[in-house]
Amino acid sequence: MPAELEHGDRKIAGAVTNLSLQGCLFTPPQRLKPGTRIRLKLSGESKPVTATVKAVSEQGVHCLLHAGGATLSRLSTDLDDMALLMLSAGRPTSMATGGGS
Predict the structure, then answer these.
(1) 3-state secondary structure (DSSP) of residue 90
(2) Which of 39, 52, 36, 55 is nearest to 3 (CA)?
(3) Buried (b) or exposed (e) across 34-64, using 16+ Cβ within 10 A?
(4) What share of the chain is helix, strand, coil (3-state, %, to 5)?
(5) Distance between CA 100 and CA 85 in Å, rounded?
(6) Which of 1, 11, 65, 85 is 20 to 30 A from 79 (CA-CA)?
(7) Are 24 and 2 in contact (CB under 8 A)?
(8) Residues 71-100 pLDDT 10s
(9) Cα(44)–Cα(38) distance, integer angstroms
(10) Per residue in 31-80, pLDDT tens?
(11) Higher pLDDT, 71 or 4
């Protein structure tokens, strides 16, 4: 989804992928040190979400969302539902198997 990363007075347009209740990946990659506090304004949201850079790789900026109840309650219902669907889609499922021979 389209997003904007805010760091200081810089605003960088990009996209957020792999959104979960705890974190996300922002692309394109930026030169930010792990531990840097940033803000992410996600498409359709009125307020940015505070996050901390966990790592930067060739994939992008790996972010830890400050996901206390206050942050999550600020997200729109649609975005919150999308995060839950992505989280559920990533969970392994077990399949019942019949008895072995």
Answers:
(1) coil
(2) 39
(3) eebebebbbeebeebbbbebeebeeebbbbb
(4) 20, 40, 40
(5) 34
(6) 11
(7) no
(8) 445 555 555 555 555 555 444 444 445 555
(9) 18
(10) 999 999 999 998 888 888 899 999 999 999 999 988 554 444 555 555 55
(11) 4
CA distance 88 to 85: 5
pLDDT range class, residue 8, cuts 50, 70, 90? very high
pLDDT at 79: 57
Q: Are 75 and 12 in contact (CB under 8 A)?
A: no
How much is the pLDDT for 94?
47
Query: Is the bond preceding residue 34 a cis peptide, omega within 30 degrees?
Result: no
Nearest to 22 by CA among 93, 89, 86: 86
Distance CA 18, CA 20 (A): 6
Number of helices (H), then strands (E), in the chain? 2, 6
pTM: 0.67
